[in-house]
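Why do we care about 3D structure at all? Because function follows from shape, and shape follows, mostly, from sequence. That is the central idea of this module. The next example makes it concrete: a single protein chain, its amino acid sequence, and then its structure expressed as tokens.
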Amino acid sequence: MNNKTAKTASVEYTLPDINGDRCVHALIETASCQACVDICPRNAWILDDESLALDTSLCDACGLCVPVCSEGAITQTKKCTIREEKHKKVLLVACEYSHTDTSFESGENQWKCLHAISASELLMLYRDGIHQIFASRADCENCPRGNCEHLYERLGKINMMLRHSHLPPLHYNELGIDQWYRLWQTPKKAAPGPEMSRRMFFRSAIRRGVDMVLQQTSIDESQHDFRPLAKIISDLTDSGSDTGSGEAHPRAHSEELLFPAVPIINPANCTGCDTCVRACPHAALRFKLEENLAYYEIDASNCTSCHICTDLCEENAINILQWTSQTETSRTLCLNIQKCDSCGTVFHYPRLNPEDSPPRHLCNICEKVNHQKNLFQVLT
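And the structure:
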């Protein structure tokens, strides 16, 4: 899909783009995800058995589909302003309904909806040293776009992750448009900062000093290397470069960390078929075999809540918990290794107490297929 623009008054907005290879519908045909379709206030996204498409005649470039895509498949370039306030870089954003001054609209603020900024984009801004956001918005409750997760709600979840990782929070301040506009106009030297494309965010942003009243930046969601939120937080913890002191913070214990999504496997339902392991695009579920010890390893830091595993599991053995910690006991599921009495194949299945489940002697295929019905005797 090609990037196009939509015009409002004298402002041009970039329409969302989609990376088809990263969409869950390109990964499995039975994907249940329709987050972009559900969130769109203008019904511009069209999902059917053949394809996922964007009706550009209906799309107004609000960008609300960007933060709901678990795989970062939907991208959009957004322009906003970086300023310096009390010797620290701050981000200034205002929704289009917060002001009516056309001359102001046609300036640096080219922003449709505040709630369109994704958690990944917020963490990239944080990684570049922006720990404060000044926002101005209209009445979201009476806005057709207001039926979504609001920016301050998303920031609250991110700050919980930062707090659990012993990192300082990302502050959010709402201002009236007059106060916001005065801050926008204040003739101060802008803080040094890069043109913030996604590639630069993930590859050590190139800093350059610029002496100017205002500095514009582009938030570009079209990164080449998509990373789960927990991995970005882990990078910040390892580098310690955004804490202000330059010293790395101590890494929290795994049970203290907060994850956006935590896969849970119910051993009573699981058959050990490995479908989820083979299908997971981020290796959040892995099969391990070490010295005749077999187990499933569940790494919540890799999970994006794409629900591919739950869509494929015929036994409904997998559940994904949202915004919780992961205990050590839930990180692994021990497996029994057995040789099938019928076909001789070595297979595995969850280890349960003998009284809860008797030992299995047939693999998954032989349990479902009666091979003897295909046998017959040839008489001569």
